[in-house]
Amino acid sequence: MSEHERRDDEGEAAAAVRPPMSYSEYLRLDRVLDAQSPLSDAHDELLFIVQHQTSELWMKLAIREIVSARGLIAADDLRPAFKMLTRVARIFEQLNSAWDVLRTMTPSEYTRFRDALGQSSGFQSWQYRAIEFLAGNRNLAMLKPHAHDPAITARLEAILAEPSLYDEAIRLLARQGFDVGAEAARTDWRAKRAPSAAVQAAWTTVYQAPERHWALYELAEKLVDFEDYFRRWRFNHVTTVERIIGLKRGTGGTSGVSYLRKMLDVELFPELWHLRTEL
Predict the structure, then answer these.
(1) Residue 38 located in a structural domain
(2) For 171-223, what is each residue's pLDDT tens digit?
(3) Domain count of the chain?
(4) Distance between the two ends of the chain, CA-based, in angstroms?
(5) Residue 207 counted as domain residue
(6) Measured between alpha carbons, how far is 146 from 150 in angstroms, rounded to an integer?
(7) 36 in any annotated domain
(8) Domain housing 11
(9) Which bin fits 252, alpha (ψ -120 to 50), beta or left (φ > 0)?
């Protein structure tokens, strides 16, 4: 090794040892890795905490991407919106994989710390609720679990005061000259919308001639892809819960598996699924 090469290697090593900002500092790993505080001595409680904390981090990113994609669709800037919606689908793919890790925990192992959870439950995740509201499932009854927290309620109400991701897709259809019926004049974004025959007919026209309406066709498929992974997440959720606690009630007071099974029937973008029968 030449003297020059030796000095370069020593310089790189010194920089790695004494960086201006370290890897841990940039990621604030001291805060992240100290955020797990098991309340029992059960081995598997750390798994339970890490799985749910990482899920919330992925949901934080999903919310950001959905909000950004919604704004771009409203501005008729679809290409970057497609990238963001693809990312949301991949985020839910990651969330699905997380259930595979949690399913390594058996019922016997869960019962060793379940009482320590008190009334806490994934049902109370306001970020999950935000994703549903942002996508278009505006079930106002789902505000109740957050009524005790005015700040969170205000954040969710702010989402409900604006068009959802799917509302913006329908508004885009109208701007492109499609007849979307009463949806074109709708302004009450808090209200839960019902499937519309006019909207379904508009999307059907897009699917019948994708080469003429490629941007709308691609947007529709990005939405379907997102919901496809979202549905898998729900299915994996109910399967994991049943595998671990059977038909017991959930810690947050829900009926557990029976409640989660009902959620499997909820459609975020109904017309995009229903039109497939007509094609």
Answers:
(1) no
(2) 999 999 999 999 999 999 999 999 999 999 999 999 999 999 999 999 999 99
(3) 2
(4) 69
(5) yes
(6) 8
(7) no
(8) 1-31
(9) alpha
